Amino acid sequence: MxxxxxxxxxxxxxxxxxxxxxxxxxxxxxxxxxxxxxxxxSSFDFAxxxxxxxxxxxxxxTQTPSLxxxxxxxxxxYALQRLVGWVxxxxxxxxxxxxxxPLLLMDGAEMLRDNMTRASVTEDDVWAxxxxxxxxxxSQVRAVVMETTGDISVLHxxxxxxxxxxxxxRGVRGADxxxxxxxxxxxxxxxxx
Amino acid sequence: MERLEDRFAEWFTFSxxxxxxxxxxxxxxxxxxxxxxxxxxxxxxxxxSSFDFVVTIAVGSVLSSIIVLEDVSIxxxxxxxxxxxxxxxxxxxxRLRYDLxxxxxxxxxxxxxxxxxxxxxxxxxxxxSADEVRAxxxxxxxxxxASVQAVVMETTGEISVLHxxxxxxxxxxxxxxxxxxx
Lengths: 193, 182
Prior knowledge:
The structure holds two protein chains of two kinds. By secondary structure, chain A is of the alpha+beta class. Chain A contains seven helices and four strands; from the N terminus they run ααααββααββα. Chain A has a four-stranded antiparallel β-sheet. In chain A, β3 and β4 form a beta hairpin. In chain A, α1 runs antiparallel to α2. The N and C termini of chain A lie far apart (67 Å). The C terminus of chain A is likely disordered. Chain B is of the alpha+beta class. In chain B, strands 2-1-3-4 form a four-stranded antiparallel β-sheet. In chain B, β1 and β2 form a beta hairpin. In chain B, α2 runs antiparallel to α3 and α4 crosses α5. Chains A and B meet through α1, α2, α3, α5 and α6 of A and α1, α2, α3, α4 and β3 of B.
């Protein structure tokens, strides 16, 4: 029982030293990997950020993993993120394999029930997101998109204001059904420029 | 004294085989998470219900344990991840299907400001201070309290600030608990 409340002096020193070492390791890796280190772009980026934080905690607090073991683990995660990021950017097919495709949840003021069912999103969930985006009236909504990361984007503006450009919704599943008046009228070849 | 040094040294010892295992499990666990994310779809790491965020953190933490801890083998970790993703999927479907489930697994959103009026009773219920509400108004770019239409604390713990323009329509506020605002 006393194990829960006591600590040996050498373990405290080891914790302090591991903390410094692991922290320095994360600083260096983050500088090496650059801005994408903790970005939230693809589906699992956020989970990776948490894995890094959790590994840092294990390295500091517990005897196993040892500092070096944790540094190798951290290095492997940063490297994989980097590698997958590079592959994603380089090959379109890789992005299709790795990432979930964004999905249209609202087309103007109309909720797309079948898409909501596909993504297990309830009506209340969508309302909450509209409020977060400062939507005051449903008629302001141009489109609602569930992004690759699981975040929900709400595109809105005054009715009759700037029309929604088709290319903003590039790659979004279900975007082809947007009402014609809202969509970029130029030929498809121009849109993908 | 020597024993003490040994015990200290244990924090920093390692084997080459151990380091190799860390690198290999990192690749496997990473691939596993990508696979599960693709299977589970967009909801995997979303922040829609109260507990979505916690589950995301749990997935990250399990991933880390698989990689650096010998005790947590890749097979054990895979089972843990599979169950977490499975539960998220199951609860997600049930929430969608049955209002009762949606209501019982999530906290209902609550109104914190009704127009420019701060609802102190409601603030007390969710233990949010007036200072915190002010901070959220500033974050949302509110320059004058008079322009506030409504402030809602959402299921996820996020705070929505509706401001400017016309009063929010009833449809938008249908599921929000009004409390003292009546």
